[in-house]
Structure prediction request, 404 residues.
Amino acid sequence: MMTGCSMQDEILAGRDRTPARVGTATAQRRPTRCGAVALFTLTLVTLTLAAAPLVAPGAWAQQAGTGVPVTTAVAGRRDVPVMLRNLGTVQAFNSVLVRARVDGTIDKVMFTEGQDVKPGDPLMEIDPRPYAATLAAAQAKKASDTAQLQNAQRDLARYSNLAKSDFASRQQLDTQQALVAQYQATIQGDDASIATAQLNLDFCKITSPISGRTGLRLVDVGNLVHATDSTGLVTITQIHPIAVIFTLPQDSLPAIQAAMVSSKLPVTAYTSDDQTMLSAGVLATTDNAIDQTTGTIKLKAVFDNPDSKLWPGQFVNARLQIGTLKNVVTAPSTAVQHGPTGLFVYVVKPDSTVAVTPVKVTQDDGQYAVIASGLDEGAQVVVAGQSRLQAGTKVAGTPAKASS
Prediction:
């Protein structure tokens, strides 16, 4: 069976019987005509394939009689808390770097790293022998001065009796009175020396000044420490309760102050991904000045932190609730889309087609958006699959699963 190109070549060969032309011109025209036919066929196929993607995916689904699969939810009314949020840092409610108050060698370490301690619990002990000796010397000196005072007081009594009978001069009596006063002052100095020596001896036993958790030990047994050392012995941090410091724009300050008048404002701390709640507390206070470099105000929240999920130095997302919006229209946050003219949602109409509806959002907490205008209660909106939609697209909606 001959192809179209072969039949044309046969006709041309029958018209020209000259041997020279059969061997030259006919042989040259034959591949040229075959290439032209093949090129035309290839071009037609290419144009057909190129035209196929010009049809939108949604249009193919509508031509097939089915809608574009999407996930939908119903706009409803609810009470929505008014939240202010920003990144915060967890700080110990109290933190103490325990230092030595006297010089000496560390004899004992009486705590374990990470131990919870209370005020007065023993931590370390410095060699007490030098300070015990100093205390004993001060006590001995006082005993000596006390004996001298007693003797001077007895002499003063004798001079007083003799002076009454003029057997002692007034000068001798005054001198003895001065000597008694001198010994009394000396004993007062001895008492001060004894108190100082006793205090230094007490300082040899280092105890916890606050309730908290001990950190890593900074000094080991056998090391010589001084009262002037800046490194300290151990750090104790109070984590029950614990504080979170965060900042908010200065424009939020009037609303915060107004809300603080009526009640304590709740604050919640979330993980850095803003998904898991760590603890709940209350706002303690605002700072007494606005940071002029950033235009923000610092706030301090206090958390009981019973399960120790908050830890000093940890970064958290702090959410401050300053009020509640009552019975407002809301839609899932994923339903709100950004367009060239503003925010909008895809609303599913009764005929299963979608309409582009502009909306005004007053608050969006990442889960629900508060719709001030543009959307009515009960409207069905698209929450997933918007990338394949345009006004009038037919959809096949699947209700979204209720969030826990």
Remarks:
- The radius of gyration is 47 Å.
- The helical segments are 4-15, 19-23, 25-51, 57-63, 129-164, 170-203, 253-262.
- Residues 99-225 form one domain.
